[in-house]
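User: ok so my PI wants both of these folded by tonight, can you help

Assistant: No problem, let's get them done. Here's the first:
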Amino acid sequence: MYNITARMPKDFISLILIWQIGIFSLYTAPIFGEYADAVKHGTQMTGASSPKNETGPSISDWDSLESNYFAIYYKNAVSLKKVEANLRKRVFYFNPTAKGLDITIEERLSSRLDTLLNRVKELLDMQPIMPKLKLRIFKNRDELNDEYFRIFNARGNRPSFYVYKYNTIYTSEADISDSILAHEMAHAVIDHYFTVIPPRGVAEVLASYVDIHLEE
């Protein structure tokens, strides 16, 4: 099947976004206005119930670290070495510092995440003012699914998801990759860039564009 994002010039991103939002708003402006406001305030999420109030990770179950752009929480059983290795499967913008022998795994991971987010912003040509993104890494998909159910009271089985209300990306050691995180980061950047959140179909096109062109 033809993939439009594989051949979509970067210069057309804004045109596509404006066109789709314009067509969508022309017919559904009142509905979309209510929908976007609900998403902004975390009272609605496509395909799930309203998110509940987030509870902070238990100190006994979680460890944490921070980078320039992220507050990272990971379950005690998570291997940061495996996580960092899974974020180096695609070759792009390898920071010499991140490859140094004298830095810790925490520094390597932090550097890679910050590099990923900068690349996402560059590809989207969006530089929103946004707080540090939270990243929660569970050990496996079962734990991630349990968290999805706790938040939305609905069953889910996905390798990652992003919740605007909590400014948080959720994934697991078993699922994490540079492609998956770049996709979720794109959603976060898009949602913080626009005053009114674009239709999810538009956001998916742009997030897919980021993933495809990550290494260019």
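One down. Here's the second:
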Amino acid sequence: MRQRRTSKPIKIGDITVGGDAPIVVQSMTKTDTRDIAATTSQIHELEEYGCELIRVAVPDEEAAQALSPIKRAIHIPLIADIHFDYRLALAALKAGVDGLRLNPGNISQPEQIAAIVQAAKPRGVPIRLGVNAGSLPKLSGSQVPDLTSTRTPLAERMVEAALEQIHLLESLDFDLIKVSLKAFDVPTTIKAYQLIAQKMPYPLHLGITEAGLPRAGAIRSALGIGILLYLGIGDTIRVSLTADPKEEVIAAYEILKGLNLREHGPTLVSCPTCGRCEVDLVGLAQAVEEGLAKLDKAIKVAVMGCVVNGPGEAKDADVGLACGKGKGAIFRKGEVVRTVEEKDFLKALMGEVEGI
């Protein structure tokens, strides 16, 4: 793994992003923001799963008015997602949000950006320039490629779109900036982030946009986000899935844990099963995973299908269960500590976990 890119640290609420701060996990609500109760409830659940920044859609004035009570009811920084109408950004700032996300593809007029900066700067509210491959703006400068031209590689067009908006913000003496360059195509996304990482000092928010349903979307996101993190690029991440947002948070932490970048909650180790397995290991592993979901202990738990090899194959697990026919062995760090009946597998293993 390469040394992490040094970026300018900024504060989003009480969370530091960039610099040497840990990679931050972000998600976005799937509720109608105008439904304050539903949105607040979903954010509270995401907080339980470890979400550290939350973004909400602000499609109209009614949604903007809902931001203030939502902000008062939650415990993590609130980011307003703004498209098309810059006045919604101004309303969100008045409501007390901790951050803004603007899409340069539909809010890029200098006078509109200037009005947003004038309101954001005294409040110390950062702006994320969220470039999406599917909604690129036309560039105003004559010395840069036309973003609508297919002759210029998409990754380069995305970078130029971001840089033009960065330069505009800098000209307004504003540097509380975070940047994202998202595409569905993983190689395009990786290339765009690699290019811009060399051209500006601001924190980078990573993600693969419209990644899809959990099975394929988590894989696609793990590839794109994981490769960039391995290259030392990235300060915040969101796994965008067509699913309950808590699945995004869970997947994000699995990416970070897989790269040894963050310790957050338990890690489940389970064997793929084979002809030696004499229990419903899949069902057992799923039940253990569900039981571990909201724990904040940074421990490794193993569920293995073979009594003979289980403890050895998962000897670095803090606690584990190796299943045999009718009985199983509870082990710690590879050493068997007791045996239990099959009917007690789940209860016994979770009891050991709680005792750590």
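The longest helix spans residues 154-171. The first strand starts at residue 10 and ends at 12. Good luck tonight!
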